[in-house]
Amino acid sequence: MKQAALDTLKKYWGYDDFRPLQLDIVCSVLRGNDTLALLPTGGGKSVCFQVPAMLLEGLCLVVSPLIALMKDQVEQLEKRQIAARSLFSGLSNREADLILDQVQRGQIKFLYVSPERLQAREFKERLKYIQVGLLAVDEAHCISQWGYDFRPPYKQIAELRPLLNDAPCIALTATATEAVREDIIAKLDFKSDYKVFTKSFARENLSYSVFDIVNKNEKLLQILRSVAGSAVVYVNSRRKTAEVAQFLKSQNVSADYYHAGLSTQERGQKQANWIHNKTRVIVATNAFGMGIDKPDVRVVVHLDLPNCLEAYYQEAGRGGRDEKKAYAVLLYNQNDLNSLSKQTNLAFPELSYIYKVYQSLADYFQIPMGAGAQSIYDFEIEEFIKKFNLDSQAFFALKKLEEQNIIQLNDAYHNPSRFIFLVSEADLYRFQVSHAALDPLIKTLLRLYGGGLYTQALPIQESKIAYQLKTDYPTIKKALQYLSQTDIGLYTPQNDSPQLVWLKPRFHAKELPIDVELLKTRKKMAQEKADSMIDYCQTQKICRTSFILNYFDEPNDLKCGVCDICLTEKRHENPNLEEELIQKIHLILTAHQPLNYNTLVQKIDLKDKNILVPLLRKMIDEGQIHHQDGFFRLH
């Protein structure tokens, strides 16, 4: 079993061995155990279900809440010559049916499904005729109302299990407290012999620091000048991403900004520039990071407070995935603490306001009473708010409607134009003979995209087709639409817009099936999470890593030795140590400058090297030494 898993890992992923805990998880799944895997951000969760799925008969059904993440994983599998598709609310029913036809014929190994799609009667009916070898539930904390990203459709996953021929289930998450873990196990209806694998939430190479500071931009600049390498800076508004990036550029720091309001092309280009180190610093909202596995991020700075430690841990954890030294720095002041408490209250609007937003949505999309179930609409929230004279709390009201499983919001993502032929080669030839004007288009489609157009909807570029046929985009689009209307093919035009899915028939606003107790529970939980975030900022005595571990129910009395709390404690234990080190550094550099970091460390001969980095930063800030091109010199 172990050797088969290792051989599969090598064949498809090119790795000689698993990371710690991965092989144990893989073997648990292969033995047929229901399995809960808790691995920190960047811990390689996908391999834990993808490898055993390759060794099990039948389909791997993967439930995932984020379309962008599904799209990324499907692309990664296809690069490894593994057949994978995704079903999400943005697909037409016809295209979904075609994908399920392929699944039913055994042509697909991995099917990624949004939790909302699972509830469709047609999908459940199809499952009866599909051999499923493994059910994988990604971001499994979404199943719990105690989780920080609750998604009600996740609670329906267990209803599918009787249709899956006793297939084992693996649930995966990076952030789950003990209460959330228990919820996952219960709500997924795990069998009594289930296994739980938990990798410690401790990140030995990650140094956490928190600073109470007024001038955050100046502190940010100081941090970026002290720590070389790639960086992420998180802020809580789109406007602020551009402002901070502009400030950094004015200080000759290579920087750009990123948020969900940018076009797909812009986001893709900015992300690519950062990943390939053409841009050093990306200033972003929390829309940035999911599915991005850049190993060499040296510092993650938060200029604004996340609303909970789960979010902070996940975002900070994007630093140092190569297991080399990295820094997670949180900057705050008293105004931020007050704002976090206030924001938590704003996030839970009064019922009357939720009703008002629901009514406004129905009017916006002109949905008749009792109609609209499973309808999909392009949705620009700023335009909606402006049209109905709503305020910023409208966003939170929409989130409450989503948590109540009444609507679903999908962020903008790039969904390119797609095309598939729906007829056989013989029938297509007969059509070409009788429709000579369309013959050049059909031949060009087959020449550019090959015979795969008979088996799956492939991404196409209308502009490229137009260039080949020496015509224009509108002409090609019109012709492709005609092929769809005649059922020769299925053409789905590109869509980059955010979307709203109207999940249930329209109600009278005040008759909405709102679970008031759930609202109360979620509000209480949000207040507790905000309080924990504030406590993390203000603690002066508890090691940062220890604080995080205790929050995630990993009891410990750890002193990481590298966070700001631990380093301050060391200085207090030996108040003369800093002065002695400064004198020693001056003497060494006087005799040997310039020196790189490793040589300087060797000459200092310091047992605890963790105290040296902040001291060197301080000496640079005070103008005692100079650091350039990796070398230290005296000023």
Describe this structure in words.
With 635 residues, this protein is of the alpha/beta class. It folds into five domains: 2-198, Rossmann fold (3-Layer(aba) Sandwich); 206-332, P-loop containing nucleotide triphosphate hydrolases (Rossmann fold), CATH 3.40.50; 342-414 and 499-525, Arc Repressor Mutant, subunit A; 420-492, no CATH class; 574-634, Orthogonal Bundle (Arc Repressor Mutant, subunit A). The chain has 25 helices and 22 strands. A seven-stranded parallel beta sheet has the order 3-4-2-5-6-1-7, sandwiched between helices. Strands 8-13-12-9-11-10 form a six-stranded parallel beta sheet, with helices on both faces. A three-stranded antiparallel beta sheet has the order 14-19-15. A hairpin with a 2-residue loop joins strand 21 and strand 22. Helix 1 (2-13) packs across helix 3 and helix 2 packs parallel to helix 3 (45-55). The radius of gyration is 27 Å and the shape is globular. The termini are far apart.
Cross-sheet strand order for the largest sheet:
3-4-2-5-6-1-7
Total individual domains = 5
Annotation, overall tally of beta strands: 22
If you average the pLDDT, what whole number results? 88
Shape: globular
Top-tier CATH class of the largest domain = Alpha Beta
> Any idea what the CATH architecture of the largest domain is?
3-Layer(aba) Sandwich
The largest β sheet comes out as: 7 strands, parallel
- C-alpha-based Rg, rounded: 27 Å
Q: CATH homologous superfamily of the largest domain, by name?
A: P-loop containing nucleotide triphosphate hydrolases
CATH topology of the largest domain: Rossmann fold
User: Which strand-content bin applies to the residues?
Assistant: 15-25%
Q: Number of helical runs?
A: 25
Unreliable spans = none
What's the end-to-end separation, in Å? 61 Å
Percent of residues in helices? 40-55%
The helix-and-strand class reads alpha/beta
